[in-house]
Amino acid sequence: MGRASSSIFASEGAKVAIVDRNDEMGKSIEDEIRALGKEGFYLKADLSNLDDVNQIVPKVIERYGKVDILFGNAGINILKTTLDTTEADWENLFSTNLRGHFFLTKSVVPAMKKTGGGAILFTSSTSAISGEEDQVAYSGTKGGIISIVTAMAKDLGRYGIRVNCILPGSVDTPLFRVWLASRPNPEKALAEVIDAHIIKRLGTPEDIGKIALFLCSDEASWITGSAYRVDGGYLVRH
Questions:
Q1: Any catalytic annotation for residue 228?
Q2: Domain locations in the chain as residue ranges
Q3: What is the pLDDT of residues 189-211, one digit of tens each?
Q4: CA distance 91 to 48
Q5: CATH number of 68-237
Q6: What is the pLDDT of residues 141-157, one digit of tens each?
Q7: Which residues, in sequence order, are bridge partners of residue 41?
Q8: Which residue among 42, 64, 138, 234 is the active-site one?
Q9: pTM of the model
């Protein structure tokens, strides 16, 4: 989803900073954007490491002079039940999926205030609402995203900063494929997942990138504190 969003934002004229902890992935996205004749650069950082987090905004400002948009899309999952989830699992999920996004936002707000505002968007999940079997800690982090978006929208609106999140359904990403491979019968599991959506297909990363572009654009200038379902109708049925 981050890869597709980076290309979509760049194609619309954004100067993109790609933040990833995977060199191969980050550099390949940078190459894709430059192949489009657009501007983007890869910045290595791990959102679970606050030292890394605190270096992101200064490096982006050094390169581009300002930050107008933050799309917090980093996320990991650990497939464990309530009884199987360890303290280490809990800390790993919350440090990446929730804590890292909070402190990255705290870092970017002063820069946005200086330029009169900006747009902040996070990726939550339908799991934030429905909860999912074997994903209790993950569901907790994604529910936390909705809560901090509501609170941040109230805190930051006075500075012209909008804060929203999106709730993707089952999107065909590497993370989804890891979950699928963990099922006893992946082919059957895939069919069941597709059937759980009113629109009978998996989402694509581009589906997410397009709504992310809208919510961060001037066309969404009166939208803040919202959690947008981009889920093919999954939550309607659950």
A1: no
A2: 68-237
A3: 999 999 999 999 999 999 999 99
A4: 9
A5: 3.40.50.720
A6: 999 999 999 999 999 99
A7: 17
A8: 138
A9: 0.95
